[in-house]
Amino acid sequence: MIRVFVPRDAAALSVGAEAVAAAIAREAAAAGREIQLVRNGSRGLFWLEPLVEVETDAGRIAYGPVRPEDVPALFAGGFPETRPGGTAASLYLGPTEEIPYLQCQERLTFARCGVTDPLSVEDYVAHGGLRGLDRALSLSSAEIVEEVTRSGLRGRGGAGFPTGIKWRTVLQQPEGPKYIVCNADEGDSGTFADRMLMEGDPFSLIEGMVIAGLAVGAEQGYVYIRSEYPHAFAAFRQAVEAARAAGWLGDGIRGSEHRFEIDVRLGAGAYICGEETSLLESLEGKRGTIRFKPPLPAIQGLFGRPTVVNNVLSLATVPIILDRGAEFYADFGMGRSRGTMPFQLAGNLRRGGLVEKAFGLTLREAIFEYGGGTASGRPFRAVQVGGPLGAYFPEELLDTPLDYEAFAARGGLLGHGGIVVFDDTVDLARQARFAMEFCAAESCGKCTPCRIGSTRGVEVIEHIMAGRERERNLVLLEDLCEVMTDASLCALGGLTPLPVRSAVRHFPEDFSRPVS
Amino acid sequence: MSVNGRSPEAAGEWDPARAQEIIAAWKAVPGAALPMLHALQEAFGYIPDPAVPLIADALVLSRAEVVGVIEFYHDFRREPAGRHVLKVCRAEACQSMGCEALVAHLQERLGIAMGETTPDGALTLETVYCLGNCALSPAVLLDHQLYGRVSPERADALVREVRAEA
Is the pLDDT of residue B7 over 80? Predict the structure, then answer.
């Protein structure tokens, strides 16, 4: 039976994939053609969604973007058996894997996303799943930690801390309950990789968490998913049930003496809960306020016990490292940024989507070669990398390689890999004000520089925009940014000055406009 | 939200027995407060004030602590919302694609400000920061359904649909 793929990824659904799937089922039944409809994850080529694929002897063939009203014409033209002619011919994209956007990528973490049925355990195993876990089961805890350390994997949530070192700290703690906490509170604007993975290849995250449990001696995992992702929450919970039914979770994992359980928790709308100590407070049922560090969560984390807190992508990358070996993974990348990063092209771009590449791709290549320039067709003006706490870069900095250290050297941060592009209609003074407004709205309130500084920051930027004592207020803003940077307890207050200062530095003209 | 797989339309009148049932079901779970509050909000559409002492008793917290948790999180409501909730993303990626114009349009068309409910009780309009649909901006979430590339016209159509139901 011919297999037809229509994504069930939330982004694909947001532009009509459900209606397309229904139309395909209807047309196939009406024409008496037997097809098997598979609801896969997204390939991450979002401007082509809903992207419909057909499995053929020559590989998968893509069509897109398909609207429900295109479906009758597709079938009339011979779809899915033959390449359709007639009015549907323009939807034909050729072999999926040969679409340049996808062909030029290096998909390790996202190798299966969009390819498999996310809830099929058979599909997962057929596409290389569980090989990492099976190898981990043959190793000691210390050997697993060593493998992850040698791979050079760094935390993909934004901080870039070496994953293996964190695991080693937890492993070295005395016996007793330990926890693996997956941070799926992906709150940065411009990022959607965690969401795509939880919807499109959830078993890789589950496998990564089980391996982490083996590595540090933990038997309980928590996945904290933000409530703004209702679809991912539902999809991931289904995957956990399927994994449990397959014996990948629970007692005697894969016939071993090991056990591991995963509990999936829903956030409640708080950006700050993406910060690891706030997340732990929230998991414990409290207000999501920041904890002082030390003690590190690796020593005193969830319920006071040693805890690994890792991002979705870090954990989901662990299986391939165990499967292919540390060297295989570390061969990708540049400098101290090893491996690949799932970059997310977002905002005002013609071809927004997920681009997993080795570190070292330049911002210009990402925006123009992959992204195709602005969606509006207007000139590029600014790009914000790394979410609401990331710097705004102008055209002159576009040759910066996407690498943790290269970004830090230019006053920016790579964060979780979100790249948001703006055309020439953007006003960087407004963006700077928004950075402060966002910080004020999302501050947990624990430390003064963040709680009060953000509100004062909004006011000072408003004075500047209104032309009131501009010179003095710019000095005051710089002073305030310095205090927030140096004296805030966590990255929210500490990094909000990054977008603000970069806007002032690279786009001074937006802070000296005549007041209308 | 979908903690028990029920839709927001199922929200019902305050029922102390039902509340106790929910609280008892979650009470023993480690870190119970958030799942418990989600389940209560799912059942009643908001966290009614009489639920607060019941939660406090079950979790051995003061009422102030329970209120503190409820008020910390944007999701939890102490008043009922409209029959439908439309959350409009106003974070950077959506800003780059004109979400502020969409917000202005919706406020004007509905005659309410962000955070308010239409007088017919059909729709509450809210701000959200990022729905993870940043390659298909502007994005909105209508109840649990995500929409991308939402033009003012598309937003009007969504609003017409949910108001027609009533």
Answer: no
